[in-house]
Every structure is written in structure tokens, then in C-alpha cells.
Amino acid sequence: MTQQRVWCIGGLDTSGGAGITRDLITLADLGVHGCAISTQVAAQTSSALLCTQPTSASNLNEQWQALASEDMPGAIKIGAIANDEQALVLCARLQTLPKPKPFVVWDPVLTTSSGGTLSVLSSNSIRALLAHVDLITPNTDELGVLTGLTVDSEEVFSLALEALLSLGAKAIFAKGGHAKWQHEATDTYISADTRITFSQPRDLAGALRGTGCMLASALCAFWVKDYAIADALTLANAYLKQVRAAAFATALAASNKKQHSAQSRHCGSRKIAMAPAVGFPSVPSDFPSVCFGENDPVSLRKAVSPCDVLPRCDVLSRCAPAPFPALYAPGHPRSDLGIYPVVEDAAWLTKLLPTGVNIIQLRVKTGTKEAISAQIQKAVALTKHSDCKLFINDHWQLAIEHGAYGVHLGQEDLATANLTAIRKAGLRLGVSTHGYAEIQRIKRLRPSYIALGHIFPTTTKTMPSKPQGVERLGEYVALCEGIPTVAIGGINLSNVKAVAQTGVSSIAVVTAITQAANPFSAYYDLAKEAGFAN
Ligand SMILES: Cc1ncc(COP(=O)(O)OP(=O)(O)O)c(N)n1
Ligand SMILES: Cc1ncsc1CCOP(=O)(O)O
Ligand SMILES: [Mg+2]
User: Fold this and answer.
1) Each residue of 210-219: pLDDT tens digit?
2) Residue ranges of the Thiamine phosphate synthase/TenI domain (predicted)?
3) Is 70 exceeded by the pLDDT of residue 312?
């Protein structure tokens, strides 16, 4: 199996603005090989569907067989399915896919953006398809047609998502571009146990053709590049934002020059067809703000301004809470923190403080509350008259009680921690993240640092996510937009240089120090190799 390959099944839009033509352009832009199976040939201009000719069921089957006789894809993106016969063929083929099964995304295109009909499916076909796809990506109009509801408010939107899940959808990514009742454009991912929203300020530049196709095929591209689903969705959302920005900048430039190109003719009230190549999303402002769950504790704030009456995620990007205190006081000559040892008891501080270490974490995972409290109290006392910043892992109440410098919390810890109490007590806050979605969730908190991991395989802890590697680490550091960053997970003398070269502010290690024959010199060797010390 070739991983970086996606099959696109859908209508061939002769204008190149949407359908499988657009899918292949998107995949090429993201460096993924796209194969195509045409369900129909749609004679289209950039503003109208003139006529469409569906592919016969047998031809559809033959196209599939031809592709299947070579390499299988990592993902399959399905767009417009012309009729029930085609749905039947696709269901039969999807059912017999060899393992490992590709990730199957259905973008349920029913009409063209100009209003032409591309798909007529019975409710039986819809149910059958839902049983075979991993994710469906309707806009709110499509969600309405699929569920028989008029989706025109947040309440009906939630009902429609539930209805589609009960029709058999395993997961839904409902796009918010058409949800005019929302202040921001919010895409919602929902499965049986997860709800994640991705919000962008509404941009009023104009309408672009083929955005649904681009989003679903970009999602498949990020999936085959081995991103977790939440990260693939974050990247796909950012990719769309980047394409829109580039498309409207190009269209505007063309119309300013008074060129009579297709772009300039259709810029304004009409949809523009050209979507320039933009490549992998890299501009931090193009990334959405991300909320986990309807009551994400990171997003919940006390009502502080009139705009709190708006839906929560709409408010956040504009009414951000106060940042947590910086690691260094303003004007301090240092900005990096160097090697960050993470240790299991206060005795380690006695061993390591003489190195002149800048930052250290007490991560006590066992013992009674009294014993942990005593460890924290001792560690605070040991660091009180040093320059070393002491972070306490997990035990935020005890950290406040004993006056530690800061607290380190993981994503799950945020559900029970009182962030307001930590902020009020003046403690710094570090938070763990494991990819794009969590970074975008946490940035809004403006923590004192963002931990990024795990970078390499680690034996210290069982991780639910995959190792990120140094290439992604570099992308995450840039995405953090100046918030100090800490890399963690499997870092040792052999790889610390490459980690430091990403520009990360600090490098956290457990076993590279605690299991070293000489922890004292292991600290220096790491600091030197990373370029933090001479
Ligand atoms: C610097 C740093 N980064 C990540 C972690 C992990 O924190 P968390 O996800 O809460 O997991 P536990 O450490 O509690 O197992 C950390 N402690 N420090
Ligand atoms: C606590 C933690 N969080 C992410 S990786 C990790 C363990 C890092 O340990 P090591 O440096 O020994 O790989
Ligand atoms: Mg924790």
C-alpha cells in the first residue's frame, strides 16, 4: 500500500472550480498523489451547470477495479454520487476493501454552488453509504437535506447532528460557512464521544467555488500524512483559510489591473473559480481557534463583557482572558530556559540545583496527599533562594498553597484545575500539547509556556498519541507565535541538538538525566550539545 495516495470519487467539473478536478489540484498542492473515479461529467462554467452525464454503474465499477489493481490509497474522498445505482456500487466496493482499510470521507455534494442538481439519492442509499464511510462533511444546507430538518439555528443544528449520528454516521464534520446565525464561521466535528469546534472570524471577501471539495480532499491529504483526526481537521480548516486569502488577494490584484480575466470578472458578488496553490498551512493567523466539547473548561470564562452573550467560541478570539505571568520578568536578558529536568522527588533538586539549572519540574505520581505536600514544600524551600523556577506537575492546589513558581498541567488536568485560582495566585502555567488542535486550544489561554510532545518514543510514560518528530516540532514552535515552548519525550544526547535547532525555548528530559550514570554531568552535556551552555 502507498500511504500518500488518495482516491477521489465524484463529478468532473469541466471548469476546474470544483469536483474531482479541484480535489486533484488540492492534493497536488499538498504533495499527495490523487487518483480519480468520475461519477459524472458535468459541463460547467464558473457560474452555471449546463448539463451533466452520469457514469454508468459498470463503468464506475471498472474505474474502481483499475485503480484497485495497483496501489490502494490511505484515504478515499467521495463527492457527488449521481444516483442510487452508483451508491450501490460504491457500498459494495467499500465493504470489500482490503485491510488496512483506507479512511473514507463523504462530502455529500447534492447541488453545484450555482444550484444545479448533481445527486439524487434515496434515504436507503444514504443510510447504506453512512454505514461505510468514516466521516461525512456536510455544510448546513446538506445537513438539512440529509436529516429533513431546516437548519437555521444552533438548536436545530445540534438536533440535526444527533439525527445524522442516529442514521448511522460514525463521525460528522459539519461546516459552518453557511451557518449565518453564527457570529464566527464554526466547523463542528462530532462522533459518539467527541465534539470539537474550529472557529474562524467570518471573512467577507467573497465566495470561492469548490471550498467543500478542497476541505475534504485536504483533510484526506493530512490524514495520509499521518496526522491525528483533530490535527488533520485543524490543518484542513487552516488550509482553506489560506486558499481564500490567496484567492481574493489574487482576484483583487487582477481586478485592480483591470485585467478581464475570469478571476476579475467574478470577484465581488459572484463566486470566483481560481484557487491558487498555497501549500502546507504555515501562517499562524490562518489557524482556527479550537474548543474541545461544549463546556471546554479552557473556553469557559466568567461573564466580563457584553459580548459574553454570544456563543462561547465566537467570543473567545476577541475577548481573550488575561495571560498567565511570563517565565521571565519583562526586560530580563534571557528568553530561553535551557534544559528542563523533570524529576520525581525533592531529593533530585538537591542533586541538580548546583548545576545552575534554570527550570525544574517536580512530577510526583505516587504517595499520599500528605507525602506529596511534604515533597512540594521541600522543593519550594530548596528553590526559594535560587534562580531556578520550580514547576509542580498536576498538584495545582498544593503548588498554590506552598508558593511554587508555576504549575504544569496536561490536557486532561485542565478539566479539574481551577485556572482562575492559579492565575489569581500569580503562578505561571505550563500546559502539555500533542499536536495542532491542542496547540490552538491552549494558545487562547496564553499560558507561560506550551509543552510540545512527545517528540521521540519514550519509555517513561504510555502515550496515547504518536511521536511528533523534529520536523513537526519546528512547525509547532512557529505556530506558538512567541509563547515560550518546551519540547519533551525521548530526548537525549543523541537528538538534543536537532531538537534545539527548531528554536524551542526549553528541552524537558526525564530519563536522560535520572537514569544517567552521572546526572550532574548529563545535565551539562545536554545543555552543551543543545547550545544552551558553552
Ligand atoms: C514539560 C512537560 N511537558 C509535558 C508533561 C506531561 O504532562 P501531562 O500531560 O499532564 O502528563 P503527566 O506528566 O501528568 O503524566 C510534563 N509533565 N512536563
Ligand atoms: C511526562 C512526559 N510527557 C510527555 S513525554 C513524557 C516523558 C518524557 O520522559 P523521557 O525524557 O524519559 O522520554
Ligand atoms: Mg498531568
Assistant:
1) 999 999 999 9
2) 345-513
3) no
Answer CATH for 323-530 from 3.40.50.720, 3.10.20.70, 3.90.1150.10, 3.20.20.70:
3.20.20.70
- Is any ligand 1 atom within 6 A of the Cβ of residue 357? no
| Cα separations in angstroms, 144 against 36, 151, 163, 286, 423 | 28, 5, 10, 28, 43
Q: What is the largest CA-CA distance in the chain?
A: 79
The span from the CA of 422 to the CA of 424, in Å, is 6
- Please tell me the distance between residue 198's alpha carbon and the centre of ligand 2 in angstroms: 29
What does the domain layout of the chain look like in residue ranges?
5-136+205-287, 323-530
CA–centroid distance, 100 to ligand 1, in Å, is: 32
Nearest CA to ligand 1 atom 17: 393
413 lines ligand 1 (CB under 6 A): yes
pLDDT in tens, 493-507: 999 999 999 999 999
CA distance 416 to 81: 46
CA angle 301, 307, 311 (to 5 degrees): 70
pTM of the model: 0.93
Contact status, residue 199 vs residue 234, Cβ threshold 8 Å: no
Q: Is 151 annotated as a binding residue?
A: no
Under CATH, what is the fold of the domain 5-136+205-287?
A: UDP-N-acetylmuramoyl-L-alanine:D-glutamate ligase (3.40.1190)
Ligand 2 pocket check for 454: Cβ under 6 Å: yes
Q: Is 394 annotated as a binding residue?
A: yes
Distance 379 CA to ligand 1 centre (A): 18
Query: Alpha-carbon distance 361 to 316, whole Å?
Result: 30
CA distance 24 to 19: 9
